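Why do we care about 3D structure at all? Because function follows from shape, and shape follows, mostly, from sequence. That is the central idea of this module. The next example makes it concrete: a single protein chain, its amino acid sequence, and then its structure expressed as tokens.
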Amino acid sequence: MKKVRWGILGVARIATNKVIPAMQKSELVEVVALGSRSLEKARTAADSLGIPRAYGSYEELVADPGIDAVYNPLPNHLHVPWSKRAALAKKHVLCEKPIALTAAEAAELVEARDRNGVSIQEAFMVRTHPQWLAARELVRSGRIGELRVVESSFSFFNDDAANVRNIAGVGGGALYDIGCYPVTTSRFLFDAEPTRVLASIERDPRFGTDRLTTALLDFPTGKAVFVCSTQLVGHQRTQILGTRGRIEIEVPYNAPSDRPCRIFVDDGRDYLGSGVETVSFDSVDQYTVEVEAFSRSILEGKPPPIPLEDAVRNMAVIDALFRSATSGRWEEPSP
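And the structure:
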């Protein structure tokens, strides 16, 4: 069976702890190389993960002719520069979220994709997870009536000054790191773009990053509201509210790979939950599902599961939320 040969940019924990082991579970994937700014770090990580080649620079990795695709989990401000470098080297790219720091930056990747004839996708693993696909189908089927509201919360506590999530200059902060999830999933469920958005941001006085963000997205047929924070107790939930029912996603974003996932479908007959049906999904590694779907699109010469243009539109919403937090007014997303 033909496989896509992958190279990994850097030794980020999400790559070494989650994504690379998940990639190695797929029959469509072969992780052949890893590059870091330190050859010692690259070799240590590659040896521990059974990756045959290690490079002491990102340049060497993207230049490797034995690589078909690159996974980019670098700090946020390096997503666009190194995804463009990989595309220039005729490598397909799966880039971690947020794919850019602005919609204008994300649009540069569209140009790089088209100019070099490669696929580039933002790594939103939730968009290919069975629980989210099922939730969208339930909405589309009319099971909960007309979709009117999507409520989400996503938080964790991290006040480590050295952590990239707390460094403003590299794209740290709650909205970039985790607020991007309720933005993309609400757009996914409404199958539309918000016409205007409103946001309030509380910034950490030490780091300058947004540590608590609340947002309201105004869609043509409903609203999405979310809270995200880097300095709250770890928590995540999504409520999908229709005119006749409700869907709750128990662990919407960090779906566990070692146990089934559950969503709850409520017919709304009372407030006690007597009309709730529990829908369970077999345990899957959502990173395996994500990378396998992208790899299959490469092997079959088809568009990736999530178009790059969708990433530009997602960043346009995030841009508008930042503008709104400054202006104190509704702002319109402008891809």
